Amino acid sequence: MTSSPARQRTRRSAVGALAMLGLLAAACGDDAPTAASSTAPEAPSGSITVYTGRSEELIKPLLDQFTAATGIKVELRPGDSGELAAQLITEGDASPADVFFSQDAGALGAVEKVGLFSALPESTLSIVPAAYRSANGMWVGSSGRARVFVVNPDLAPDPPTTIDELLDPAWKGTIGFAPTNASWQSFVTGLRVLRGEDGARAWLEAFAAQDPVAFEKNSVVRDAVNSGEVAIGLVNHYYLFEKIAAEGADAVVAQNQFLDAGDAGGLVNVAGVGILASSDNTAAATAFIDFLLSVEGQTYFALETFEFPLREGVPTAAGLPSLESLSPPEIDLSDLDSLEATQELLSDVGLLTL
Fold first, then answer.
1. For 134-173, how does the pLDDT look when each residue is reduced to its tens digit (9 = 90+)?
2. What is the CATH number of domain 146-266+339-349?
3. Residue 299 and residue 71: Cα distance in Å, rounded?
4. CATH superfamily of 46-144+268-320
5. Which CA distances in Å does 238 have to 110, 148, 242?
6. CB neighbours (10 Å) of residue 350?
7. Distance of CA 215 to CAs 134, 175, 191, 291, Å?
8. What's the 3-state SS for 90-127?
9. CA-angle at 95, arms to 93 and 98, nearest 5°
10. Closest to 102 (Cα-Cα) out of 145, 65, 69, 55
11. What is the pLDDT of residues 72-110, one digit of tens each?
């Protein structure tokens, strides 16, 4: 049978359309490699300025590794985290800083509160559990540390496991703490958030009545516990591991007592980082944070500083429990920013100075 003219026109149109699609596909195939190569993003480069509350001696080897791996130079401006946060707030958009690498979350929360950070990429944020980063995506934790009781087992064979048990009259005059240390003050700030102003004041007044022994810093508290000068000390977990690494396990009597689930004394705080919204090299700043959160960076914190790595799958130092096995109090770490109010409260109850 002979096809009708209309059917012949339809067949010719279909063949023409398929031929055109074939040409377009071929053209797209020819252009794809060229387009991809012309739009590929350049690797981050240049330099960044990092304000940091972390010890330069502590982090310098890691920064050197970052520069060797990326070619990005880091200008480090170290100082106290709280003072650097105040400086950033004063400098505002005119700050030369690209990154704020804080020793604690409270200082990061203060900078976030005034809107000086830019949001981090989800690919960066998702590396760290939600509890250890900004709820608004403005900063991310880089390593964690837990508050513990470091105890002398000869003097405290059955040590307390909550901060309220610490108030038992049996422990009067046997407790060491470092009143001027930032980690003690962060704990008290967390106590204010968790129990309210009145609840925190009540605990602090009862603690002051225990006649605690004030020391200059956490390492001195640890040593006093180890020597038997006091039975219990309020410190961060890693101070014991530093002493063991320096002197050997056989020379160390003291032990860490981790606190009961949810107890305010078992706060897990973080060192962390954020990118300033005024940075003119956010690509390099992001690369810096991603390096801190890489397996290499997290392993450095685990093995060199004895802190908790925050990236899943990176093991802790030998003898240290996993972060996942702890049950710290639930708290938004950004809320640890009210340091001035904490210091006023500590001054009122006589626990701010040596």
1. 999 999 999 999 999 999 999 999 999 999 999 999 999 9
2. 3.40.190.10
3. 21
4. Periplasmic binding protein-like II (3.40.190.10)
5. 26, 9, 6
6. 11
7. 33, 10, 21, 36
8. HHHHHCCCCEEEECCHHHHHHHHHCCCEECCCHHHHCC
9. 100
10. 55
11. 999 999 999 999 999 999 999 999 999 999 999 999 999
Sequence ranges of the chain with CATH classification 3.40.190.10: 46-144+268-320, 146-266+339-349
Q: Which amino acid is at 332?
A: D
How far is it, in rounded angstroms, from Cα 333 to Cα 274? Answer: 14
Mean pLDDT lowest among 23-37, 148-162, 221-235, 272-286: 23-37
Is residue 312 within 8 A of residue 126, CB to CB? The reply is no
Q: By the 8 A CB rule, do 273 and 292 touch?
A: yes
* Separation between Cα atoms, residue 215 and residue 235, nearest integer Å: 11
Residue at token pair 């067949």: 11
Query: What is the C-alpha separation between 33 and 36, in angstroms, rounded?
Result: 5
What percentage of the chain's residues is helix, strand, coil (to nearest 5)?
50, 15, 35
Structure tokens at 91: 């400098």
Question: Which CA distances in Å does 294 have to 22, 66, 235, 289?
Answer: 45, 11, 28, 9
SS3 for 352?
A: coil
User: Between vectors from CA 294 to CA 291 and to CA 295, what angle results, nearest 5°?
Assistant: 140
| 308-339 pLDDT, tens digit each | 999 999 999 999 999 999 999 999 999 999 99
Tell me, what's the pLDDT at 39?
59
Helices (H), the chain: 5-39, 56-70, 81-91, 105-113, 122-125, 182-208, 218-227, 238-247, 282-292, 295-300, 339-348
**How far apart, in whole angstroms, are the C-alpha atoms of residue 156 and residue 159?**
5
